[in-house]
């Protein structure tokens, strides 16, 4: 019975939060810009509007174009079941974060082939940029998880809280670095400022938005939801690293939700005070994440040598 | 003496003979039937070993100096026999469809006979225990595959690539000869069993490395890979499928065999193999991503996958060194599993490429596009193959990569911190390789099958059934392995037994994780079903309009405005310029009446570039000995005579 309630809560969270996440970012931006701004529930209205519409499909496309949104959404929903919220995930096994990373790859694969399926030059351009930038993130993510595994014996997302039990002051530094690195990963994967601007109006400067130019109706709704979900998933991992466990289940939920909302607000603040970097400098921004991951690796080695 | 092993040999020899005398119209099906029957017999032998009985021994008596030849089908041999017989039988069926078009123009019969010789020699390479006979069948395998590669021998590029292949194989053969001769002299025996005693009790590093290099030539490990991207594209597709899927794996078999024979391999060798494997995987995937020739792309991707397999092997060796059995088992098992998966999806990709080539007559992806509407079946299996190669969840490639990752993850808390750091770096690089593979294969699939056609494809149509059924079998197997890996594991897990002396094997642990993986995959399938149901409900009774692609307001887009494959990968290729050999050259128009102007971009294999001057030096050196080769038979007979006289004198002097 408890298990069922647990799963139900998880499902509610995953249905509600991705769009809410986008809503909070927009609201933060509006408030800082001195506007009243749309309600935080505006993405829900947009989403429902899209769900009621029909579709316009390019006649160049094949079945891939209609298949891709389904695959993108399902792979990210599936990735969610490995994220432990308040201590436990719906499902876990040793090495599940490898599966998580590959599921992000799975969604990217379909995103890209759907973009190339339209035969548009703009969408090819976006696809090329997206795979280039996000492929650099992959080794960074694995170095982070590997380093954490080295120091705390982590085998799955569920073991992350063991990190807090590792003695030594250096561990605080390591956690801080991990959070910064994952935050950059969230910005790049979620295509936010400064890596990409979702509100840009020129196709030539887009990365993610240009790949979905031809999607409409429910398909576009799925993609909109998926991009919120992707950021939500990575912010959940960030929350895992900084939530102290061992609390009551429901207190755990509250802290987790607070951290996720806080990361959405931080994204909003960053978008308000920063401009996006030039396309040729996006790569440098992405490489910061990889450099930080190497810093984490070295601090882990230092921690080990000092401890021994 | 009846057994299925001999029956298989008999079927193959019979098939080769009968194809000599059958009329052209019935040649291919009759040959295919005999070949498949032979392969089924071998499959029965290997399945019996893997599932029930354990080792089986067959003896064949030959004349001096070989004497009794023992074929021992242990778990390792049985596994390789299984994939060889499975892939080659599908390859032969596919080939029967593929070769139809060549019946009137080429000599198909000799080609068919060489196919059977290749199958037979591969089966024997993986099961024979006698080193001299091993070298003979190894040579037979290289020569027969050489003749298969140069099937279209009226083209210059084909012959060139074929001869390159033949020579490279013989350089590798020299290493094997040195290694095995040393062992034969030291042990005074031809049998692998005696080698094992010698290798386990002596300093073995040098012999191990020599044999490893010899086998690397066949496997295609960088820097011994240069034959592979040349030979695969020119061979007919069923042959490139068989070669890439199973023949280069005999090189891996050789490496695995010497690992079973050598018990105490030093950790330094393990780490050096790991580094070579990482370089292979990394450079392999980068070069593969850059290719515009789809068969060349697949060939480089084979190099990448051989690198991944070797990473697994290296983890196995390292884990075995400090007797961490879980790590070691996961490493070897990951390698074995990846060999299995790779043999399935790579043959699938090569066969499907054959369909594309026969219909479009081009290997350049920049000239294709929009084939999905013309060849939907080939397109679907191509998609499944691409997803498997990228190692994405739900498909077979993920399972084996996951096992290797999992081995590395367990290796991270190794007793030595150096090994831990190396494991973390390997972990990351393996992830990077996976990400780059996604770039390469999204390009391959999308540029060929999606978008609008870049050249006229009016007369392109779907291939024959006989060329599609093997593909669907392979694709189905890829998906099933991805969803139910635990059953494949039950079939394969005994293959790792020969690597350990005494097994306290935790098969339960690995089985448990694979079962969990399988359960989660079923959930994934459920989610996909649920989401597509929702989409279906939402779009019911809704208007779906067909329009042209959004052209940013431009009304007359043409197909040449699409993104090309090269443009798609160039932003990544530019990042890795120093190692990818990526270059651009530009000649801008000048003056009032500009004439010539061009823009060129491409890439080269850096090993080819830096090895070529060295090879040129060697051939310059050897040109001084050119006078020995006169091209007259009399001269050669004279050489023989001189040699005999010298031998005679030497014997007399020595008394």
Concise overview:
Chain A has 308 residues and is mainly alpha-helical.
Strand-helix topology:
The complex is a heterodimer of chains A (308) and B (655).
Chain A: H1 2-32, H2 42-52, E1 55-58, H3 63-80, H4 96-117, H5 121-152, H6 170-189, H7 217-242, H8 249-273, H9 279-307
Helix pairs in contact in A: 1-2, 1-7, 1-8, 2-7, 3-4, 3-7, 4-5, 5-6, 5-9, 6-7, 6-9, 7-8
Chain B: H1 4-21, H2 24-53, E1 56-61, E2 68-73, H3 75-98, H4 108-127, H5 131-149, H6 156-187, H7 192-201, H8 205-219, H9 228-234, H10 237-261, H11 267-290, H12 294-321, H13 325-360, H14 376-389, H15 396-411, H16 417-449, H17 469-483, H18 485-492, H19 507-539, E3 544-547, H20 565-575, H21 577-580, E4 582-587, E5 598-603, H22 606-623, H23 633-654
Antiparallel strand pairs in B: 1-2, 4-5
Number of DSSP helices of chain B? 23
Count of individual helical segments of chain A: 9
Q: Give the % helix of chain B.
A: over 70%
Biggest interface between chains:
A-B, 82 and 85 residues
CA radius of gyration of chain B: 26 Å
Mean of residue pLDDT values of chain A: 90
Classify the oligomer: heterodimer
Distance between the termini of chain A: 46 Å
Biggest sheet of chain A, open or closed, and with what strands and sense? none
Rounded radius of gyration of chain A (Å): 19 Å
Strand order in space, largest sheet of chain B: 1-2
Cα(first) to Cα(last) distance of chain B is 46 Å
Helix-strand sequence of chain B: HHEEHHHHHHHHHHHHHHHHHEHHEEHH
Shape of chain A: globular
Count of individual beta strands of chain A: 1
| Secondary structural class of chain A | mainly alpha
């Amino acid at each position: 019975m408890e298990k069922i309630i647990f799963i139900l809560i998880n499902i509610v969270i995953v249905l509600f939060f991705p769009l809410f996440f986008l809503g909070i970012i927009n609201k933060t931006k509006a408030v800082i810009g001195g506007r009243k701004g749309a309600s935080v529930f505006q993405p829900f209205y947009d989403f429902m509007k899209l769900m009621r519409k029909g579709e316009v499909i390019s006649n160049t496309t094949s079945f891939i174009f209609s298949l891709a949104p389904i695959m993108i959404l399902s792979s990210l929903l599936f990735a969610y079941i490995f994220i432990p919220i308040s201590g436990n995930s719906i499902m876990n096994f040793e090495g599940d974060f490898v599966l998580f990373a590959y599921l992000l790859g799975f969604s990217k694969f379909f995103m890209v082939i759907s973009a190339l399926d339209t035969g548009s030059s703009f969408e090819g351009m976006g696809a090329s940029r997206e795979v280039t930038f996000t492929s650099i993130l992959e080794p960074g993510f694995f170095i982070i998880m590997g380093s954490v595994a080295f120091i705390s014996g982590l085998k799955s997302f569920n073991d992350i809280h063991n990190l807090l039990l590792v003695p030594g002051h250096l561990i605080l530094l390591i956690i801080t670095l991990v959070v910064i690195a994952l935050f950059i990963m969230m910005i790049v994967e979620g295509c936010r400022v400064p890596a990409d601007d979702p509100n840009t109006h020129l196709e030539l400067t887009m990365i993610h938005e240009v790949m979905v130019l031809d999607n409409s109706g429910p398909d576009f709704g799925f993609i909109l939801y998926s991009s919120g979900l992707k950021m939500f998933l990575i912010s959940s991992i960030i929350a895992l690293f900084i939530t102290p466990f061992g609390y009551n289940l429901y207190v755990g939920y509250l802290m987790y939700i607070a951290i996720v909302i806080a990361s959405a607000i931080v994204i909003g603040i960053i978008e308000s005070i920063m401009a996006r970097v030039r396309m040729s400098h996006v790569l440098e921004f992405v490489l910061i994440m990889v450099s930080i991951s190497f810093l984490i690796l070295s601090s882990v080695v230092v921690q080990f040598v000092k401890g021994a | 003496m009846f057994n299925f092993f001999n029956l298989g040999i008999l079927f193959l020899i019979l098939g080769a003979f009968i194809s000599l005398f059958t009329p052209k119209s019935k040649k291919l099906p009759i040959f295919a039937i005999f070949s498949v029957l032979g392969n089924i017999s071998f499959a029965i032998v290997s399945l019996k070993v893997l599932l029930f009985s354990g080792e089986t021994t067959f003896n064949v008596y030959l004349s001096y100096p070989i004497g009794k030849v023992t074929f021992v089908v242990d778990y390792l041999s049985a596994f390789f026999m299984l994939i060889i017989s499975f892939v080659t039988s599908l390859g032969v069926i596919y080939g029967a469809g593929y070769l139809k078009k060549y019946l009137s123009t080429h000599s198909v019969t000799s080609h068919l006979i060489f196919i059977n010789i290749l199958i037979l020699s591969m089966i024997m390479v993986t099961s024979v225990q006698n080193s001299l006979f091993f070298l003979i069948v190894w040579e037979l395998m290289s020569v027969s595959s050489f003749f298969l590669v140069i099937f279209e021998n009226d083209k210059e590029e084909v012959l060139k690539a074929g001869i390159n292949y033949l020579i490279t194989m013989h350089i590798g053969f020299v290493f094997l000869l040195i290694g095995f001769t040393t062992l034969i002299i030291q042990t005074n025996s031809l049998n692998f069993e005696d080698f094992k005693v010698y290798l386990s009790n002596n300093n073995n590093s040098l012999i191990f490395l020599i044999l490893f290099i010899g086998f690397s030539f066949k496997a295609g490990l960088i820097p011994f890979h240069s034959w592979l991207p040349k030979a695969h594209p020119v061979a007919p597709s069923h042959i490139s499928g068989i070669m890439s899927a199973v023949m280069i794996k005999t090189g891996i078999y050789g490496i695995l065999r010497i690992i079973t024979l050598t018990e105490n391999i030093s950790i330094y060798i393990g780490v050096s193999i790991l580094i070579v494997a990482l370089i292979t995987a990394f450079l392999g995937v980068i070069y593969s991503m850059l290719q515009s020739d789809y068969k060349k792309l697949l060939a480089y991707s084979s190099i990448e996958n051989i690198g991944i397999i070797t990473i697994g092997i290296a983890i196995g060796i390292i884990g075995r060194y400090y007797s961490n059995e879980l790590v070691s088992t996961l490493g070897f098992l990951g390698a074995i599993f990846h060999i299995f998966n790779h043999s399935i999806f790579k043959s699938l990709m090569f066969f499907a490429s054959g369909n594309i080539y026969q219909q479009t007559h081009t290997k350049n992806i920049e000239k294709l596009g929009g084939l999905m509407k013309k060849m939907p079946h080939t397109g679907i299996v191509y998609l499944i193959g691409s997803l498997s190669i990228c190692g994405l969840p739900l498909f077979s490639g993920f399972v084996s990569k996951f096992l290797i990752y999992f081995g590395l993850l367990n290796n991270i808390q190794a007793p030595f911190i150096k090994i831990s750091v190396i494991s973390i770096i390997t972990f990351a690089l393996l992830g990077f390789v996976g990400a780059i593979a996604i770039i390469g294969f999204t390009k391959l699939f999308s540029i060929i099958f999606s978008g609008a056609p870049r050249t006229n494809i009016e007369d392109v149509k779907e291939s024959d059934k006989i060329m599609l059924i093997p593909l669907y079998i392979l694709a189905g197997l890829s998906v099933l392995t991805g969803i139910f890996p635990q059953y494949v594991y039950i079939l394969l897990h005994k293959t790792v037994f020969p690597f350990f002396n005494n097994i306290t094997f935790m098969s339960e642990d690995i089985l448990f994780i694979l079962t969990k993986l399988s359960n989660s995959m079923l959930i994934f399938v459920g989610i996909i079903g649920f989401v597509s149901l929702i989409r279906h409900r939402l779009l019911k009774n809704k208007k779906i309009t067909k329009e042209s692609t959004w052209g940013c307001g431009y009304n007359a887009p043409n197909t040449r405005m699409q993104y090309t494959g090269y443009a798609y990968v160039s932003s990544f290729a530019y990042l890795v310029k120093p190692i990818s050999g990526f270059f651009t050259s530009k000649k801008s128009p000048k003056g009032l009446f500009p004439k010539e102007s061009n823009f060129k971009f491409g890439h080269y294999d850096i090993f080819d570039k830096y090895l070529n001057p060295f090879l040129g030096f060697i051939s310059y050196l050897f040109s001084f000995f050119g006078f020995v080769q006169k091209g007259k038979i009399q001269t050669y007979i004279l050489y023989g005579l001189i040699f005999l006289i010298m031998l005679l004198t030497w014997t007399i002097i020595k008394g």
